[in-house]
User: What shape does this take?
Amino acid sequence: MRGMKRAMVGLAVAVVMVLDGGPAWADKGGDEGGEQGWVTIPCSSGAIDQVAVTEAGVMTLEGHLDCAGPEAAFGYARYDGYGDGTIRVADLRSYGSSAPTLFAEVWQVGLSHEPFAVCVVTDYEVRAVCFTVAWDGPGTPVVVASLATDDPLVARSIMFVSDRDGSPVCGFC
Assistant: This one.
């Protein structure tokens, strides 16, 4: 147990070290105090090197994107079985100054009996890499599987939700 705690602390430190830059964020102006926007680059090359989800809903994710550009950001979009995928300001990460851009995350995710997908997204319409998470309930394993970026579960628009005001901003709506 003590070793597990040390490993989690070490992973948390690594996440902070890898992701020490804040999200790339621009103010586009706008009539009501400034509509914020996500600064993107269309990067479609990368991989998830490791992903796991526990029955308690703790997700660990490690991977890389074969792109760089510290002025821009990539993020993590969640796709449930309906509607648009969602991404929040808190889900954005800055690219590294040189490729590859490494990422490592530990999240608490809500598990339900409905499968969902997560994609590393680099633009409103660009999903670099995706995976699904399925769970049949207590006492059963959480199943994580690779998913094609054009699978119908994720081949949908992304709804951007600002952490600042809670209102959604949609990519090409």
Observations:
- The helical segments are 2-18.
- The radius of gyration is 16 Å.
- Residues 2-18 form the longest helix (17 residues).
